[in-house]
Amino acid sequence: MRKKVGHLLYVEQPERQYYRWQSFGPTDRQTENLWVDLSTLHKSQVRIHGILSNAHRQAARVALSFDFPFYGHYLRQITVATGGFIFTGEITHRMLTATQYIAPLMANFDPSFSKNSTVKFSDNGNLFVVQWDKVRLKDRENEGAFLFQAALHKNGTIVFNYRDIPVPVEKMNSTEHPVKVGLSDAFMEFLPSSQISDARRRTIYEYHRVQIDTTKILSGSAFEFTPLPTCLQHTSCDICITSNLTTGCGWCNTLQRCSDGIDRHRQEWFDYKCHEEVRNILHVYIQTGPPNHKGITENTTIIAGVVAAMVLLVALTILAVYYINKHPTVAPPFYLMQRRTNNYWPSMKFRNQGCHSSYAEVELGGHEKEGFIEAEQCC
């Protein structure tokens, strides 16, 4: 089922599971085990971000010391926001920040209210923790200070820990700032704007969202998200197609990638016609089965066929070169494919961008630059 909101399209896929999660209450023993007590670490292991700790609606890029798997994609850089969430995308476009996040408690927090309000980091090579420490809601500072954290484990596990929650999430106002808790990921796809035009319309698809029961967010509670296997983890054609850990996977020889076509690389998957390649490979598997299931004789036949094809290809190449040398005025019948080298999506313009104030992304040197935009779409 698809829900259209402006240029944002949410694709409901209840049959696809990316994470398994469970909650722990204040009386559960596991809650205390999940909490990462930064106060017990050496000062050199904990960093208080000076800018985020003294600002409102700011965000800063943070480099991780390890590759963190998120929806099957490995992240080495994230963006931490004062508003109680982590942006996991590569670019900072307002609609993508609405759909690519790790949000223990996204809300209108203002760490600049007090010197005791800080945003802390810790990274030991296997675990990255960001803690919003004694932060208060903007214009509701007298209602109390919040203390919570998000812990990213090297194996992909994500933990939300809540130590002090003075205001129930249901009573937080989302008018000035969105209130969200959970995980989300999205991809951007280019679609023809019309059949008679060459222009292409860019649409953002939020292909999965993990939402939790916010009534369970209490002081002393925790949530643990365990990643499930994805197609992207398979590194060979046979495993991609035959693995019992995943379903709906297809192998693209051109990109040397296993995918179901629903991930951040979807545009590239279609640009290189991987969806057509997958159909052909599946057809071969349906007709003959995977090589390792048919015995030595069939393997030998397949190898012989591959060798014969290579010999034929070499022969055709030699003939083509001979023909070109004999007919130098004739253009060679070869076409080169130029691979796209720009890793960032083009910027997008949207109407009604004044529904929420924007975030400003900051650098370590203290210089501010516009770019990280408030994580909510306008209707």
TrEMBL record:
This protein's major location comes to membrane
Q: What's its membrane topology?
A: Single-pass type I membrane protein
What InterPro entries does this protein map onto?
Plexin_repeat (IPR002165), PLXDC (IPR031152)
Q: Which domain of life is it from?
A: Eukaryota
**PANTHER family reported for this sequence:** PLEXIN DOMAIN-CONTAINING PROTEIN 1, TUMOR ENDOTHELIAL MARKER 7 RELATED
Protein name listed in UniProt:
Plexin domain containing 1
Supply one GO CC term from the record: membrane
Give the residue spans that cross the bilayer: 302-324
Instruction: Note the Gene3D superfamilies from the entry.
Output: ligand-binding face of the semaphorins, domain 2 (3.30.1680.10)
Q: Does the keyword DNA repair apply?
A: no
**Keywords in UniProt for this one?**
Glycoprotein, Membrane, Signal, Transmembrane, Transmembrane helix
Which gene is the coding source of this polypeptide chain? PLXDC1
| Localization of this protein | Membrane
Family statement drawn from the similarity comment of this UniProt entry: Belongs to the plexin family.
Pfam families assigned to the protein according to its UniProt record, in alphabetical order: PSI
Q: Does the keyword Membrane apply?
A: yes
